[in-house]
Amino acid sequence: MKTRPGNLRVKLPVFVFVLQVIIVALYVAFVTYDEHADARFQTNRTNPMDNAVYRDYPFFTDIQVMIFLGFGCLLAFFRLYGFGGMVFNFLTATFAIQWAILVQGYFQFSHEGKIHLGVVNLINAEFACAVVLISFGAVLGKTSPLQLLVMALLEVPVFAVTEWAVLKYLKINDAGGSILIHLFACYFGLGVTFVLYRPSLNEGHAKENTSYQSDILALMGTLFLWVFWPSFNSALTLKGDDQHRAILHTFIGLSASTLTAFALSAMLNKNGKLTLADIQNVTLAGGVTVGASVDMMITPAAAYALGMMGCTACMLGYKYLSPFLAQHCRIQDQCGIHNLHGLTGLISCAAGICAILMASEDVYGPSFYEIFAHRAPVDGDPKLQELQMLIPGLKPGLGRTAREQALFQVAAVLSTIGVSALGGILTGFVLKLPYLAPPSDEMCFDDDLFIEVPPDYDSPLGLKSTVTTDD
Amino acid sequence: MKTRPGNLRVKLPVFVFVLQVIIVALYVAFVTYDEHADARFQTNRTNPMDNAVYRDYPFFTDIQVMIFLGFGCLLAFFRLYGFGGMVFNFLTATFAIQWAILVQGYFQFSHEGKIHLGVVNLINAEFACAVVLISFGAVLGKTSPLQLLVMALLEVPVFAVTEWAVLKYLKINDAGGSILIHLFACYFGLGVTFVLYRPSLNEGHAKENTSYQSDILALMGTLFLWVFWPSFNSALTLKGDDQHRAILHTFIGLSASTLTAFALSAMLNKNGKLTLADIQNVTLAGGVTVGASVDMMITPAAAYALGMMGCTACMLGYKYLSPFLAQHCRIQDQCGIHNLHGLTGLISCAAGICAILMASEDVYGPSFYEIFAHRAPVDGDPKLQELQMLIPGLKPGLGRTAREQALFQVAAVLSTIGVSALGGILTGFVLKLPYLAPPSDEMCFDDDLFIEVPPDYDSPLGLKSTVTTDD
Amino acid sequence: MKTRPGNLRVKLPVFVFVLQVIIVALYVAFVTYDEHADARFQTNRTNPMDNAVYRDYPFFTDIQVMIFLGFGCLLAFFRLYGFGGMVFNFLTATFAIQWAILVQGYFQFSHEGKIHLGVVNLINAEFACAVVLISFGAVLGKTSPLQLLVMALLEVPVFAVTEWAVLKYLKINDAGGSILIHLFACYFGLGVTFVLYRPSLNEGHAKENTSYQSDILALMGTLFLWVFWPSFNSALTLKGDDQHRAILHTFIGLSASTLTAFALSAMLNKNGKLTLADIQNVTLAGGVTVGASVDMMITPAAAYALGMMGCTACMLGYKYLSPFLAQHCRIQDQCGIHNLHGLTGLISCAAGICAILMASEDVYGPSFYEIFAHRAPVDGDPKLQELQMLIPGLKPGLGRTAREQALFQVAAVLSTIGVSALGGILTGFVLKLPYLAPPSDEMCFDDDLFIEVPPDYDSPLGLKSTVTTDD
Fold it and tell me: Are residues B8 and B437 in contact, defined by beta-carbon separation less than 8 angstroms?
């Protein structure tokens, strides 16, 4: 007897349990506590309130809300795919974090053969998870949970290697993750969706639309992301004034892009009405656009201007570029991640480079060499000792000039885009394996394929609403 | 060709972009970082963890949730105006905060011609924003987004001037903002709605009702506000025991008013059932009522009693006063802000005055003169030096007696009500300008006027429910 | 004239106001501020930022979200009982906290006849409230608000006495509350539902099902609980590395159980689809299972394995045990609390005992005697002085061996189960008093009995969906 397409009864448990056994084995073999979580490091000189957990945990909970409720609700915007959006987000995020703890841990947090675990690793792992979820946006509704798990399984290591290589060898400034998170996630996702191209979807799909309730749910997701985005952009900056500026710039950038999004939404709609999809997505553009320079002394005005610029690019992308890519480039970018993370990420990188070129000790004071750590004098340089009088604990750098640092930023952008696009394309081919139960074209954007639905699912109203009136 | 009424295609973009250009120009000219966000102030004596961001940011994120998710969901209680409630709240809040950063900054945070920006300014600006959103409650569903932006444009400066004048010249105690936030917002909003009076709405409106989902959404908004209200009331108190008491009193007041609201809701309903609108609104009365005395040593029992009293006044207001005001005073108070913020605010002020009259050094210890800063001895008084031995850093005050302080509180209440009502009335006249695209009576409480709606909007069910069964 | 069944017009107000008068009187007589909230303790040696509020408040707000939004949304999963789930949760929680402040205060926080109040009491009271809400899960939809208030009125004192006796006399390790919170709540709730047995409900009930929107709402509740659970499990641990580990273990346990829940859900469904009820409930099992050993050095791998085990037990419980208990033991456990809190709690206790038996000073260092405080040497033992050189402030213990401590843990489990089951049964008999307005069998799971509902409630769609297709 042939099983129903979409039947996960054997595949999903087998796949998940194999993964979990491997993960437990790796945790047993390699994972231990870091010094802030290990009881042995508690001595008579330890003040419990100095534990790193009190610096990191508030940012961690904010990012948790973004990942599970923010992304979850925002991805539930389809009328008949609300369960899918929230539930597959939950599954994928949970797996990606567990996996990233191991993979990032191997590259960044291992000493003497052990991965040292603290809340700071969880924050890093949630960033890796955000990368996977952004890429998920490109293929939302067109992938099985198995495909999503495999995507996470492959994307996390490619991301972790890229992150490690860029930070170790290119040594860039990217506090908000515009390059490493947003550009990587975007081009990886585009690579995947390029390979998973479904020609029939370009002719419209009866289930590819929203309902009143799903739109409100997605708007709540947007608001969760909006509200906590300053924590996302500042979680891993230097503590003190750097983190303070990152929060200010993110808030200002977001709030500028929100106003612009409302204006452009009315302007580009033929009836002069607001379009909810714009409010749900384009308002967030400012958070990405300030990313690469978020902790620098760019002035609040520049953060405001960046928010406006990012929003404009993002909006025009949704209006003109996304349809073009779908029609002519085989790139069906379901949630428009290229607009919200790609275009804005590129603007952010450009702005970061400008900020690096214009930065000077006059504006930053001696802490200039902390923020631009690679421009600090090399070990042995007498200038370093001078600076260490002013900022104790300043580490020797590479003595880079502004122009050199800018070139390394460019190199990081180009290599990140290259690696992620290639990684995405290869991952796409893996996802085409028939074992992974991809939905048929007809069953895309439909909860009923993989999830038990209640009786009021796709009710008469729902059927009626398959006649879309969207422009 | 005449454009459709409600067409925002030209008006909204023009208005928003003009505002944004002005705002950017003002940010360029006047806004800089405060000492906790400026890299130049980083020296070898700076401990990054002492940065003010770590004191302020947790309260800021809580208030963010209240403003964007709390107000947003609570204002989405109409059946056909869920988009409008959430989306216009988002737009208005975002603009009000940007604008308040500048206007409050000019009055309260400028030194040497520059506004010094830190997270503490954002908290203050979110309070100004809360003022606008409360006033918005009076005219919900009857105003275009343009009108709301103009309202914010005018209300923020009137608020900022009042706040500055009251704090600088009258020097009052109002930790939870009962006078400056709640009373101001209430009477401003009533002033606006008085001018925007629409006689036909007194005869009922087919769209002025709720649905099952919109009621649940609004209840979530209530819960967001309820949960984080202690942060709202304590965000700007003195640090330490003051902030601690503000949290305790707010929680106790809210929880007392919640129980009372359930009891009264069943009692005043002719079927002995609970009414959801009561649960959504009246449960919150305690948070306002404890406001003016929230950081004083009023005892937990008094906070409990205040919660019960405020709740009772608020509930009776909804039941008897609001209909009276609508029928006989041209005041159509859509969300009943006069009950939730006006009546409770007045009780709160009275309680604050009692607390001031009864406060003594016996109960507070020497920190009495920190909490009631204006009662501290004047500079040169030997008593001041004595106190400074006990509380280092105590600032000289004005040597006011309890009775004097109480009179200044009364003066602040009266002048705040006067200024806000007048400001609201004048703002109302500006909002009547035809350029601002007010909705027709028939299109009030209807998303379809300004926002693209999905096909299931106002479905057969919806039509059926125009026959209201509410009592 | 006879009143409608379910009419609360007299009963609820009378009951609530009597309670509130008693509560105010008790607050007046017994409640004062603790030293961190009392202005008199402010001296020139006090640093305001050292106030306990800054240690406790962030955890308190997280738990607030769990109690009011997490439980609230999760309990709203029935199609026609969304108002009931959220609103009765709100009512019950608010009352339980007020009441627990007094009752727990009497047993744990009173000195010289006064209950000393700070945010830490609120956290404790919210734990007592969580106990009541978990028990509520067993009788959801089958109880009137009056019954719920009476249940809270009785359960809180039984819980407070048990907690006090276990902590004072048995002196156990239970940082995450697996014994005192989860097992107590579970067996109390089962006791209540045993007495309130309704045979007709075993034959199915037309309203005992979900809708698309109610399922999404409940899923949001799950996510709120999931995201903040680390704060719940770590709120009252020792500060520093203990709290850090509690956060890590809870996160790892939850994320392991989430993956396992997805796998088992597909495996046990006859169509190989995911079942939303599993995602809503079973994913949370890991949070309970790590509880009793959450702050110990169990290794991350063990936390992962515990998450998987707890999840498996919980899932099998839902599938096989709950139907059995309902059919053969008169135990109708509406939300399956025996699976999510009972079975997992037992596993957690067993794991805690193993962790105690295997703990050694080698692994923990000298802080071993802080975490296992009762194993510290008794006063006068020279070993104690030695240890106090390493860990200043270490308090003398009872000199228990590992095996002794393990036996006390077992004693605590057995006595907690016994007391709670007995308390639940007795409470069940009180709840049968006719004055308390229990709903008839037919009106179970129906908002319309106690709450005014909007016109679209139980619309044609709703009626249609009474034909359940669930397996």
Answer: yes
Q: Which CATH class is domain C11-42+50-454?
A: mainly alpha
Nearest residue in chain B measured CA to CA from A268: B9
Q: With an 8 Å Cβ cutoff, is B206 touching chain C?
A: no
Q: Considering the domain B11-40+51-452, what is its CATH architecture?
A: Orthogonal Bundle (1.10)
The CATH label, of 1.10.3430.10, 3.40.50.620, 3.40.640.10, 3.90.550.10, for the domain at A26-41+52-358+401-441 is 1.10.3430.10
B312, closest residue in chain C (CA to CA): C17
Query: Which residue from B minimizes the CA distance to A389?
Result: B44
The beta-carbon neighbor of C244 closest among A15, A32, A36 is A36
Please answer yes or no on whether A468 and B455 come within 8 Å at the CB atom. yes
Q: Which chain C residues have a beta carbon less than 8 Å from that of A454?
A: 79, 209-212, 214-215, 465, 470
Is B262 close to C145, i.e. CB distance below 8 A? yes
Whole-Å CA distances, A55 to A121, A130, B154, C21, C295: 13, 21, 40, 43, 19
Q: What is the pLDDT along chain C (471 residues), one digit of tens a residue?
A: 456 777 899 999 999 999 999 999 999 999 999 999 999 887 777 888 899 999 999 999 999 999 999 999 999 999 999 999 999 999 999 999 999 999 999 999 999 999 999 999 999 999 999 999 999 999 999 999 999 999 999 999 999 999 999 999 999 999 999 999 999 999 999 999 999 999 999 988 999 999 999 999 999 999 999 999 999 999 999 999 999 999 999 999 999 999 999 999 999 999 999 999 999 999 999 999 999 999 999 999 999 999 999 999 999 999 999 999 999 999 999 999 999 999 999 999 999 999 999 999 999 998 899 999 999 999 999 999 989 888 888 899 999 999 999 999 999 999 999 999 999 999 999 999 989 999 999 999 999 999 999 998 876 444 433 333 343
Q: Is B1 on the interface with C (CB under 8 A)?
A: no
Cβ-based contacts of C230 with chain A (< 8 Å) = 61
Residues 233-272 of C with CB under 8 A from A: 238-245, 247-248, 251-252, 255-256, 258-260, 262-264, 266-267, 269, 271-272
